[in-house]
Amino acid sequence: MSISSHNSTEQIDPALLAQAMALIGPARRIALLAHEHPDGDCLGSVLGFAHILRQVGKTCVAACADPAPRSFSFLPGIEALSNTLGDEDFDLVIALDAGEFSRYGALYTQHRAYLDAATILNIDHHISSEGCGQVNIIDPTSAATAELLVLFQSQAQLPLTKDAATCLLTGIITDTASFQYSSTTARTLEAGAQLVQAGAVPETIVRPVFRVQPLAQVRLRSKVVDRIRTSAGGLLIWSYSDDEVLAETGATPDMDDNISGMLRDIEGVKIAAFFKNYGRPEITWLSLRTAEPYNAATICQRYGGGGHARAAGATIRMPMDKAMAMVVAELEQEIEKAGAGFYGRDTEHQ
Ligand SMILES: [Mn+2]
């Protein structure tokens, strides 16, 4: 079975694939980097690609600056995920699911001199990606980095094991919310089919990732729902979580996953912003979800962040109250500029 394009985009450019394989071919020890604040796509991509490369004799270390959320503990190989590049003894570094070194967090800050000089292959699907490698395979039409890796595996005729397939399907399923988002193309589904063919079982991914949640997480969500505020007649919605919420609910920071998605799905909302501030009072994380015509990536880039048109994020070096006031005011202006009708702050919700 081959992956050909129907209504989606083509294969990976064969010349680019050849350049990437020219880096992989002679490499014996390979480090695979996942971005900080890891999600299912970067984790599934580094672990899945490591499984594939081990099949062809490579020694692989999968690394991420932050620990993986507990819901991903089913991923084959996750127990060996490293939070450092150790002795930096690698012939090749493969950076996955982010196109800027800064997104790799402490892996970059603690190994900056090494990574600045290392041979890097970068594979990513973010529209704002600049590419941080000598060879960059960046395809924003891909629903997930894992989808690109399925193309890569297929076109380069690398072996696909059940463990690799489970990891890569996790990447696709998490970045598309089980094929729900508009980023899902025929090619995404074909990549999924190929992974199921290789032994991956969707239920074993969907249940831990989307259905099962700890009670503390449900309580955290309830607190965040209590703090919801709206503006512009409900076109704009925002809420926040902080150390106080964690203390009251017993939740851990990773349990706020996809709260911005929940806010976006509230009827009438065009822009949803979720702010969080844990442990470091001077830093606020923003997660933004938008509907047409608002571009989340463009907005987040103003704060040094990035992402996709409908989903993006930024790390803002300000305390929560200041960051929230600044971003909310800017989002209100966006709505006013778009001529959607601005009705002022919705006092009834405060
Ligand atoms: Mn991704």
CATH class division of the largest domain? Alpha Beta
Q: Could you give me the name of the CATH homologous superfamily of the largest domain?
A: inorganic pyrophosphatase (n-terminal core)
Radius of gyration: 20 Å
Mean pLDDT reading: 94
Secondary structure category:
alpha/beta
Name the ligand types. Answer: manganese (II) ion
Q: Tell me the CATH topology of the largest domain.
A: inorganic pyrophosphatase (n-terminal core)
Judging by the overall fold, what is the CATH architecture of the largest domain? Alpha-Beta Complex
How do the strands of the widest beta sheet line up side by side?
6-7-8-9-11-10
Number of structural units classed as domains: 2
Uncertain stretches: 1-7
Terminal residue distance: 56 Å
**Fraction of residues in helix:** 25-40%
Shape: globular
H and E string: HEHEEHHEEHHHHHEEHHEEHEEH
Count of individual helical segments: 13
- The fraction of residues assigned to DSSP E strands is 15-25%
**Total strand segments:** 11
Biggest sheet record: 6 strands, mixed
